[in-house]
Amino acid sequence: MARQSVNWEDMFRALEAFKKEHGHCHVPANWKLNLQLGRWVAMQRYRHKMGELPKSHVTRLDQAGFVWAPADKVWSEMLQRLLKYKKKHGDCDVPSSWPADPNLANWVANQRHRKKMGSLSPDRVKKLGEVGFVWSVYGKNRAEKVTQAKRKTVAASVKAVEPENEERLYQVCGEYIQFNGTGPMPPKLEKYIQMHDGAFPPCIILPASPLVFRLGNADSVTTVMRKITWPGKGPLPEEVREYLNENGALPPHGM
């Protein structure tokens, strides 16, 4: 027991050092600079979920700003952004290509896709239903039905559907795949399109201009936000991709 306590203290100090450098406690599970710390953080969440983490440890992690369910926190933040959209526009039908907030547009499409695949929890289905979320926007009028029919006619030439030289992040089975429409199509994306009669999966359209992503806890006055710059083309930084795949949305960002 004494040895276990010492190990926990050592890892907690490593977590504090991580927060001091990065501004948050969200250590990636596969963080290359310290794999042991990433696994330890994941284990704290698991033990807390199972009711096996001592209350003293829970308290200290809470005081350090530890996030027990990162995906739930991001999902709740996106729901609040959807409610702001509804307050302004009167509904939850965010356009699939909405330049004012492409991240929200992608999140909305992702919720519909996950419910269709049976991977959206009943609690989240209920919360979205309570705010007037529309699960099926296809076939609402004749024009949309015609659009769906046209998609099937281009199954043999799916590469021509998407614009060229435009960075997009396609959501395929919980993973985001980046593709700008030029060169060989990623195999997983190509397989998805073939299986869906030429239709592309939900995507995030990235602007062709530099972005500055902010990683950290913006609500804490003691947090120093970490800024990561993307030049506007080419692969996204690894930390941004990890955040995206884990949370289903891009980190806060601006130009």
Q: Strand percentage, roughly?
A: 5-15%
Widest β-sheet, arrangement of strands: 2-1-3
Classify the secondary structure makeup into a structural class.
mainly alpha
| Coarse shape | globular
First CA to last CA: what distance?
51 Å
The counted number of beta strands is 6
The low-confidence runs, each spanning 5 or more residues with pLDDT under 50, are 1-6, 139-163
Radius of gyration, whole Å: 21 Å
- The SSE order reads HHHHHHHEEHEEEHE
Mean pLDDT: 78
Question: Count of DSSP helices?
Answer: 9
Assign a percent range to the helix content: 40-55%
> Sheet bearing the most strands, described?
3 strands, antiparallel
SSE arrangement:
Elements: H1 2-22, H2 35-49, H3 55-63, H4 70-89, H5 102-116, H6 122-130, H7 142-153, E1 168-172, E2 175-179, H8 187-195, E3 203-205, E4 211-215, E5 226-230, H9 238-247, E6 253-254
Antiparallel strand pairs: 1-2, 1-3, 4-5, 4-6
Would you kindly provide a written description of the structure presented here, covering whatever features stand out?
With 255 residues, this protein is mainly alpha-helical. Among the domains are: 2-63, no CATH class; 70-137, no CATH class; 211-254, no CATH class. 47% of the residues lie in helices and 10% in strands. The chain contains 9 helices and 6 strands; from the N terminus they run αααααααββαβββαβ. The chain has helices spanning 2-22, 35-49, 55-63, 70-89, 102-116, 122-130, 142-153, 187-195, 238-247; strands at 168-172, 175-179, 203-205, 211-215, 226-230, 253-254. The strands form 2 sheets. Strands 2-1-3 form a 3-stranded antiparallel beta sheet, sandwiched between helices. It has a 3-stranded antiparallel beta sheet with strand order 5-4-6, with no helix packed on it. A hairpin with a 2-residue loop joins strand 1 (168-172) and strand 2 (175-179). It is globular and about 55 Å long. The chain starts with a helix and ends with a strand.
